[in-house]
Q: What sequence folds into this?
């Protein structure tokens, strides 16, 4: 029997975190290729350190985008807000070492018959949903993300000019009878531009926004606060710590509350099942929970490179299901084509919708009118109910 009374902790990082700077640039390059040619193939990686950004990887798409990569990188860093002496969007060096996609990989993905188009890699992908927040996300990661998103809003609006782009949050959430009921501790480390600010000063800035984001009653007199616990945090971003695309895979997903297949998302076009199948698995799990078939659901999908059909479909409802997991697995395979092409077409993923996913989570977001976060829709509820 699962535990009902416990605490669980998840962390998030801001768009100015060094790894997230790199995720943003990689996804911006991907969006640029998809804007010019929706069937571009992109695997873009970015590295950042003091006054240097290196963009590499493998692509197949319009050459005009290759010549714009330096411009794209600078635009991303400018929007994030870095104008430090040792990491400034206008002055940093940008090296572009992107090259063509391997023909060995291409032959496995491409197919004369479109329905036989294979997966861009082997691997396992997980999707998860739970009915403890309106977004059907685990509460610790959902609110850790929300805190940093709110702080970014007030930083960029000018309401809180003392805040810098680099930040981390961490929430320890208390569960009673299996439901989140409060916060045991809050950890917030944020870059500040005024060197004279103390940890107490920074807490005075951020605390109202944290209280605004968290549910009423979750913060009590017993909640522990750790705001900038090491003291001064002026040197931030890639000047303080090197960044790399794809290093925040738990932040990007479920905060450790669910399994992870190990594949990162950013910089990868949707033929890469690391990304598209993980999105599809979240889509399916969320619809299972939204349909009332379970309070909690995890979906695993497995693929082989060059093979269109998933090798396996696995569902786990952790004892909360209204129907047996085998019925959910069967229903999933009937209502959605889970080949790489089927996923892309169902969720209309060959569009420039990825840069916005690079910070504050790929899941638990609102579907957007242009197709962004389409995997957060709950439009399979009726079909799932009928299928089981």
A:
């Amino acid at each position: 029997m699962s535990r009902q009374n416990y605490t669980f902790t998840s962390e998030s990082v801001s768009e100015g975190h060094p790894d997230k700077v790199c995720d943003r640039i990689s996804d911006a390059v991907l969006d640029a290729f998809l804007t010019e040619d929706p069937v571009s193939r992109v695997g873009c990686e970015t590295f950042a350190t003091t006054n240097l950004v290196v963009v590499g990887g493998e692509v197949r798409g319009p050459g005009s985008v290759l010549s714009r990569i330096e411009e794209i990188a600078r635009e991303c860093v400018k929007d994030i807000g870095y104008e430090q002496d040792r990491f400034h969007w206008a002055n940093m060096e940008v090296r572009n070492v992107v090259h063509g996609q391997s023909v060995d990989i291409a032959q496995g993905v491409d197919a004369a018959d479109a329905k036989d188009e294979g997966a861009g890699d082997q691997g396992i992908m997980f999707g998860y949903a739970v009915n403890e927040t309106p977004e059907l996300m685990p509460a610790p990661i959902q609110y850790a993300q929300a805190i940093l998103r709110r702080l970014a809003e007030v930083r960029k609006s000018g309401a809180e000019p003392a805040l810098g782009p680099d930040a981390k949050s961490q929430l320890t959430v208390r569960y009673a009878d299996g439901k989140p009921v409060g916060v045991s501790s809050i950890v917030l480390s944020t870059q500040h531009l005024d060197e004279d600010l103390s940890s107490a000063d920074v807490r005075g800035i951020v605390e109202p926004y944290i209280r605004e984001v968290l549910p009423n009653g979750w913060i009590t007199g017993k909640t522990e606060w750790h705001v900038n616990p090491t003291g001064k945090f002026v040197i931030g971003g890639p000047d303080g710590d090197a960044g790399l695309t794809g290093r925040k895979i738990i932040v990007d997903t479920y905060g450790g509350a669910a399994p992870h297949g190990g594949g990162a998302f950013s910089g990868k076009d949707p033929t890469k099942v690391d990304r598209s199948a993980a999105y599809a698995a979240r889509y399916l799990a969320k619809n299972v929970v939204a349909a009332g078939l379970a309070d909690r659901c995890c979906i695993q999908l497995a693929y082989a490179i060059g093979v269109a059909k998933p090798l396996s479909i696995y569902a786990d409802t952790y004892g909360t299901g209204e129907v047996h997991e085998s019925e959910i697995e069967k229903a999933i395979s009937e209502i959605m084509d889970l080949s790489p092409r089927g996923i892309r077409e169902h969720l209309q993923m060959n569009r420039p919708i990825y840069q916005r996913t690079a910070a504050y989570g790929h899941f638990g977001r609102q579907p957007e009118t242009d197709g962004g976060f389409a995997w957060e829709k709950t439009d399979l509820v009726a079909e799932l109910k009928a299928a089981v």
User: Anything to note?
Assistant: The longest strand covers residues 163-176. The chain has eleven helices and 13 strands. Residues 169 and 188 are 5 Å apart (CA to CA). The radius of gyration is 21 Å.
